[in-house]
Fold:
Amino acid sequence: MQEFAKDELPEIAAKMTDEQIEKSKKTLTEWKATRPPLSFFPDKL
Structure:
């Protein structure tokens, strides 16, 4: 799924305004800071 998202990202970004992209980056930063990962595998670190 992550590879699919990476392939589609440029196409999606081309349809967004600069303001929307900046807002999305800010939202992503806030999301990552306030939510734990869905999975955690300490043995693989």
Summary: The CA atoms of residues 6 and 14 lie 14 Å apart. The chain has two helices and no strands.
